[in-house]
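cache lookup: miss for this entity combination. No prior model stored, computing from scratch. Input as submitted by user K.M.:
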Amino acid sequence: MSVDRRHRAMGTGARRGRRTGTATATRAGWALALCVLARACARGRAFKGQDFKTCETSSFCARLRDGVARDDDRNHVLGHGVDVRAVVRSKSARVVELDVVNVGAVGEEGDARARVAVEAFGSGAIRVRVDDVQKPRYVPKDVLVREVEFDVSARALLAVTESAGEVMIEARETGARARVRLQPFAVEVFAPGSGSIPSAVFNKRGGFAMELAREESGEWSETFNGHTDTRKGGPTGVAFDVTFPFASDVYGIPERATSLSLKSTRQYESASKGWFKGGGAASESERNESTLGEPYRMYNLDVFEYLDDSPFGLYGSIPMMTAHGISRSSETITSGVYFHNPSEMYVDVNVDGSNGVHTKWMAESGAIDVFILPGTTPGKVLQQYTALTGTTSMPPLFSLGYHQCRWNYRDENDVKEVDKGFDEHDIPYDVLWLDIEHTDGKRYMTWDKAVFPTPQRMIEDLSSRGRKMVTIVDPHVKRDEAYPIYKEAKDKGFYVKKNDGNTDFDGWCWPGSSSYLDVTNPDVREWWAGKFSLNSYEGSTKDLYIWNDMNEPSVFNGPEITMQKDLIHHGGVEHRDVHNAFGMYYHMATAEGLKRRNDGNRPFVLSRAFFAGTQRVGPIWTGDNAADWKHLAVSLPMVLTLGVSGLTFSGADVGGFFGNPDAELMTRWYQVGTYYPFFRGHAHLETKRREPWLFGEENTAIIRDAIRERYALLPYIYTLFEESHRTGAPVMRPLWYEFPADADVLKTQDAFMLGTAMLIRPVLEQGAKSVSVYLPKGIWYEKRSGVRHVGPKSFDVAVSLSDVPVFLRGGTIFVRKDRARRSTTAMRGDPLTVIVALDENGRASGTYYADDGESYEFASKKSAFMRRRLTFSNNEFNVAGAGAEDGNAGDAKSFIDHSLIERVTVHGLSATGDVATCAATRDSFDVVRVGAVANIRRPNLPISRDFTIAVQ
Amino acid sequence: MRRPHVLALVLVLGLTVVHTARADARRRHVRRGVAPIDHHRFTETHTTFQCDDASTVISIDRVNDEYCDCVDGSDEPGTSACAGRGNDRGFYCVNAGGVATRVPASRVDDGVCDCCDGSDEDGEMGSVKCANTCGEEARARREGLMKTLREATRGERRRAKEADKARGRREEWKRERDALEEKIGEKRKRVDKLLREAEEAEAEERKIREEEEAKRRTLEEMKSNDDAPNDDAPNDDAPNAAATTNGNDEGDDENGRPTEETTAGEDAGEIIGETDEERGKRIASQWISNDDAPPESAEETGEDDGNDAPIDARVDEGDADDVVSSGRSKLRSMFDRARRLLKPSRDEALAAQASKRRDAHDAARRELDDMNDKLDELRAKVDRDYGPDDVLISLSGQCFEQKIDKYTYSACPFGEAKQDDVRLGKNVAVRVDDATGSMTLKFENGEGCWNGPSRSLALALECSDENRLASIEEPSRCEYAGVFHTPFACSPTMVSNLENELAELDRVVAAASRDASRDEL
């Protein structure tokens, strides 16, 4: 949930000028505080744009987007309207260092100067890092994986050749190359084996800018909505551009509610007009339909009632972008860029026809630390990116089931009744959630004893049926000396400080006056993790998991509902330098706490804020959406975008958080939720009850089917999660990810793939009687009927309320558990159904992965997992251990999944016999046909065994 | 359902001699999860089994073989193989020692004991050992049933008793209503008469006064020393509308901002720039300095103005309070009294008479108003729905209070319901469920929720031996739901149903224990 009562009336007051800016006193702070207290302020149901900045009202963005540095600032500013040139300083086997200075600078020691380091990584990424020599910029910690952050040997060995005006660098292991052009300074990155067209070019357009530290002090403050940012360090903005010469589409840079393929934010008549070189403000004609005018923003904010189509940044940020294009010869190139910087940033995108896509990145502070990911496939880009920031951590199996949440389940009896409701209606679910009202006055890790007198017994009761509970724990701590957590952290000095660096910051959130744990400090995280031990968190059990909300952080009376940028963190770091990573640090500490509590087993912590690397920690959800068809529709590009940005474990609140969905919307949303990697129903305090059985008998049945379908797919979804853990590939995938050469799918966002095997085109329109479907090249089988289609093909599919058009892709095999159960725990021993969809040659393959679903033994030396390779060809179905190319078979001594195969369902089978035989066991089985679909009946062979079944 | 079960057991006993243990197991296997009434279809000696929907015939050894052959799922009553497919009739728990039940197929061999005899977990895929808790459960159930029955019996007795008393209640109210209507007719005539008399007396008084006024004015004009402002004789009957807006002495508007000058009526001779207090004092001083009748408009100004205005000091406090809350006639009589106090005049006798008549009329008018209020109430009572056969009519006019969790709830079944001081709504209807006959009292239009609907309450009635507010919750915001225990929800059928249920339970448990002892043999 989020701030639901925000009432502010004020103008904006950001100062674009410099050395100006005085506090503009408004009553906003007070009005807001009063509102939050009284919970009785009028509000319109709308996004409040005036509460938030735009590029124009953020001074760094306003400067760096269009302006040109003043001549008398040239000794503090690199680039920003003039070209920069590079001078080689040193070359080693791991790194090439250069200095950059303004072209035209006299070449003396006093010149504005920055240090550039170019490195390469084993995964293929090329890093260009530019730092201020005088005053090195903040280095974000614990965002990159440890090897990349600390280990020199993670860097690829380089072959460096210097020639006139350029330095050529080649990573020996990967073959990725970078050509550093010295004047003007630019870096072209080439994928291994690629020709002369670079995957991406850094600073092709001369958008480079770096505002260097100043020695003289000055008044740099900046005011917005009555909040003054002192900006003691002066302007420290950085900017650069990246061009993807081949690309037609770019994706990524979440989080925002907008299209999957990112629209242009600017459009220029011709490239020669000095793109990004201070060509002046965008003219009115540029703000036409094809351009948004406003750049994409990344600044983690608690945005109340966000719009369903806006470039505005939401709760989390991942400064990672993927570019994709198809050449005239039908070759596809995918590449990417990751900007390793957690400060506020904006990104301009210009889709420029045959010139590719140009992007310009502007951040308020920090270093220019850019990783170019040369690709050249979507999978490789993600592999290269997740090699830097980590892959999806393996979730506990139960967390892939259905979650039931509401703000709020009021008391123990309510919990009991809801739990009972699921059993009475035979609807499976795994986790029941408690929002903030369960606490004693919003003191997290306490219970309102009037309504939750026996929490431990309550949780144990859920556990007795294999279920779990989640409670909310937020990063603001009620300032109450009698609240031990507050007191202890205060005494230890663990809170974020005001800009004086000494006094604890005091902000408003749910409990009223609150302090905020400084989770950028590893000691604070360590301490916080300890708070989740069973004897510290009263009433908790090992089946209690956690939800971190409001961790952007949300500060009701702060500028843009968050912290002032000049607050001070551990090590004297200003909040502006760490803002976008703050929420992830909190998430990390909580997850670490649960992992410790559960003897090193997998934690489960849902977070709202996120940053690059959050995928290592746990899932996120898309925040406070609304019960609205448009929000249902936009949830797909949102979740898909997160997936191609490395953070696949995500979902939107089913039903929409705000407002009351009608039965149709609720039902359709569940049908989409089936496929969200994270599947949770949630609702605002002021909404009507909406447990799945409250929408009439017909809808209850359809919703039950949708949730059951989720559970049936769990063996496949779990296999996909393991793949994501291993390779970075998303679970829920955009069509272009699977069909990169199909120009017709590059912008598709109303259909998606679950792994490689299923195409889902959910119904997103109210009252729809049919939906239009596009099937890319290949053989497809309609799931509900088995009808075969040959793609590429566009057609309409008639739908009733119970229909979700799903197509099985020829050539794939996956595994289901088709018995309805009440939870993941109850499914453990169930037999398997293997789904085979044959391609035009009668072939198909796939894998099945299993482990204990809760520990990390799969990743230990014991290799306690099992991966099977399933193939079908020549009318023969074969099961065998997976090879190295699939990630190995696992060690049968450590783990075996004894599940039996009860059914093999084959689409497109050419054999017509009604018997199948297994030579090894001399068993024969019936082949039962339902329409065009053939089922091998009850082989009852364990999937752990190698065997072949031949259909006669 | 139980008889065939016993028969089957007898059969089993009889045939045990010739059957191998294996065949026995096989029978149990085929019949797992099958109710005795269906045992004839699930017989291992049959060669085939026909699915419920008659679409398919399968070999008998495909029944309960952990594979779902029938589209309707009917071939796997004892496994989970068809869970989630077709018509889930459920797994039949024999529950030896207790009452047989059904659980959904999804519960079979899922590691959780659902049947009290644990039979849902004893299949080949079962993974847990369940204790048999049927005896315990049956005992607990019997105890609960006994308690409910006792309450229902007492409740029913009470209902029947009160029903006699309540019978004819509505007729009684109707008679009362008619009588009152008649009385009101008479009263109205009397009030009209009194009004005429009062007006005549007042007219007389006014006439005399105006004559004297005229005389005095002539005298004053001759003196012509004072220049009293605003001495136009006001219209005695029409209140000065402008002056009534003059009452804001709070100094702040609702937004907490200091008010700009409150606009007093322009015809009140307002002086620009004066404060409320100054204005009040000015107007009051006009009254006092002037021997003549004050302008009528001042009646409301006076009461609003500063406490130390002399005029108020002389009006007794109680009357001033009354003015605020009562109607026009009271206002007028208060004013008349004030006028008397203020103006001991030469025409005192006439004025006293007029005033007396006015008072007589006012008193009668008040009585009439009260009667009308009572009539409205009676009419509402007569027209209200008290459920089928007016079963709830005795609850009319009663209220119940109960502390539940943090709040004290009160509910008058045919009036208003409250959570502490928050109004949850007024009774608007008695809803009767067609299927079960159970009743729910609907309360609506309670206090509005901020940014939401107005509060409402649905109070389900449950049979018990006393009237008691048993529970109230708020499942969705501002939509309350509760349970009210009352004898009026009891019925003879309910009692006999409970008796039958208890007898059935006793019979089943007794039969089960006989079977159990036979099994032991």
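stored under new cache key. Confidence is low (pLDDT under 50) at residues 1-18, 228-270, 279-327 of chain B.
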